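From the methods appendix. Each design record in this collection lists the tokenized structure first, followed by the designed amino acid sequence. Records were kept in a plain field format so they could be parsed without special tools. The example shown here is representative of the layout used throughout.

RECORD:
FOLD TOKENS (501 positions):
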């Protein structure tokens, strides 16, 4: 498909998306098509996709929207034994923008038109017999049981997408791009406004999706190579073309929920031990440091930035994997994926940012993390970020360091103004120990005082525990850092923690 043709399909003379039926049949498509389209798009003023809906689909609630179910027999590639098929979401509820869908076969692109017969309707009034386009898509594959097609990935809403590995339930999400996250003036949400789905060859273990990103500030082209399995892996190539300078850009943004856990439940009266999609931010810095930052649900909005150069990776991780960690039969937090980002190539200088937003419940996503380049993205330039995403049970790389498997915080017994911390360490360093091993906790704080440090073995977890008291004094915020060490140096990842009242 020529970029000029595609641009006309998306914008048209009025600046609104035109029906996919107007697309040229059998138009050529290659690896540069969406990049060229995004670059051309960035040189024009932003024009949002149509959000006009037939009256029957306006103001739908959650239940009404979900009553429109896609018929599995209508799925793209259904019954072709390719190992993948694609279902589509209708427009309505929170998903008003029209998203264009296209199939690519042997270098030729064709539009996929909406058809009301693709869906079942509990309420016949919701059936619309015209091509209104789609809101998003879901991928299916036999990820859990051979021969049984199951959903494992969804692209729906703005530039959000999410995925699971074998045996998992949905949890945190990712986005194509973040702009101004947490800014008091408001965040700008980019949109995947068109997709091109490459028909896979029989016997391959991956599927390729191209996506066109658009927003008032930039346009972009994405290529996702997706492999479901024990760990579901996305290879991502992104090309960004700013329309204007972007100071607060977020690359590979992750979004999740943290309501409470043993380190932060003072304002929660709940029968469960914990409730969260992710419990911590893990980082492997360019200099080789391995950091663990437990998440919190703070009283006030919190921003943290971890400066780095050429990072090895970062991710929002769920380390608790036992049912008894959450005791929730319906939500199964222990089965929610961790998501690790591995940069490919030199990402230069910048920071891993963490935004923690207060939430009164577990309904709201309140955790955001991303890579923020040191320099602003300049208008008229091309920026390329390539990375690999691992949706799974753990980080994809082995470590010889002990990990923090629990952080517990409470009131010190003899002083209501002092906090008691309990850190549990487990892992490889404790597999073979000499008689009478000696470990100590190296710790520091930016404010207040750390005292009464104790380190002792914990046989039930085949690990070690360190406890200490933190006296904040008059401080309103403190950055705490701890690492377990022996006489030869650190044996654990570094625990980093922000204390606030």
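DESIGN:
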């Amino acid at each position: 498909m020529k970029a000029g043709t595609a641009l006309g399909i998306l914008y048209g003379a009025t600046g609104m998306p035109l029906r996919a039926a107007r697309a040229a049949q059998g138009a050529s498509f290659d690896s540069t098509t969406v990049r060229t389209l995004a670059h051309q798009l960035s040189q024009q003023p932003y024009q949002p996709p149509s959000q006009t809906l037939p009256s029957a689909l306006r103001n739908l609630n959650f239940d009404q929207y979900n009553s429109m179910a896609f018929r599995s027999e209508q799925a793209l590639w259904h019954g072709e034994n390719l190992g993948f098929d694609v279902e589509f979401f209708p427009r309505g509820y929170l998903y008003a923008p029209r998203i264009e869908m296209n199939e690519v076969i042997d270098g030729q692109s064709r539009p996929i038109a909406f058809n009301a017969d693709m869906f079942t309707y509990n309420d016949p009034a919701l059936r619309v017999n015209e091509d209104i386009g789609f809101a998003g898509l879901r991928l299916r594959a036999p990820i859990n049981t051979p021969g049984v097609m199951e959903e494992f990935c969804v692209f729906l809403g703005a530039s959000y997408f999410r995925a699971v590995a074998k045996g998992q339930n949905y949890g945190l999400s990712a986005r194509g791009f973040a702009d101004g996250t947490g800014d008091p003036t408001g965040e700008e949400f980019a949109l995947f406004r068109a997709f091109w789905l490459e028909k896979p060859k029989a016997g391959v273990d991956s599927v390729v999706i191209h996506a066109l990103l658009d927003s008032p500030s930039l346009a972009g082209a994405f290529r996702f190579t997706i492999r479901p399995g024990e760990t579901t892996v996305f290879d991502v190539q992104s090309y960004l073309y700013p329309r204007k300078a972007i100071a607060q850009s977020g690359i590979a943004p992750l979004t999740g929920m943290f309501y409470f856990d043993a380190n932060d439940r003072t304002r929660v009266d709940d029968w469960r031990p914990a409730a969260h999609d992710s419990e911590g931010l893990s980082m492997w810095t360019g200099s080789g440091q391995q950091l663990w930052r437990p998440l919190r649900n703070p009283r006030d909005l919190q921003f943290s930035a971890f400066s780095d150069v050429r990072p090895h990776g970062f991710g929002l991780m769920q380390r608790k994997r036992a049912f008894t960690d959450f005791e929730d039969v319906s939500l199964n937090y222990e089965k929610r994926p961790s998501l690790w980002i591995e940069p490919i190539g030199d990402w230069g200088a910048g920071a891993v940012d963490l935004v923690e937003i207060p939430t009164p419940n577990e309904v709201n996503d309140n955790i955001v993390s991303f890579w923020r380049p040191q320099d602003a993205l300049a208008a008229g330039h091309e920026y390329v970020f390539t990375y690999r995403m691992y949706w799974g049970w753990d980080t994809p790389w082995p470590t010889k360091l002990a990990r923090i498997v629990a952080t517990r915080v409470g009131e010190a017994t003899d002083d209501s103004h002092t906090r008691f911390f309990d850190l549990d360490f487990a892992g490889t360093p404790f597999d073979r120990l000499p008689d009478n091993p000696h470990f100590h906790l190296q710790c520091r704080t930016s404010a207040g005082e750390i005292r009464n440090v104790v380190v002792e073995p914990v046989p039930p977890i085949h690990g070690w525990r360190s406890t200490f008291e933190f006296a904040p004094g008059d401080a309103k915020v403190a950055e705490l850092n701890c690492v377990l060490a022996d006489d030869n140096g650190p044996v654990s990842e570094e625990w980093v923690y922000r204390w606030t009242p």
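APPENDIX NOTE: The chain has three helices and 34 strands.
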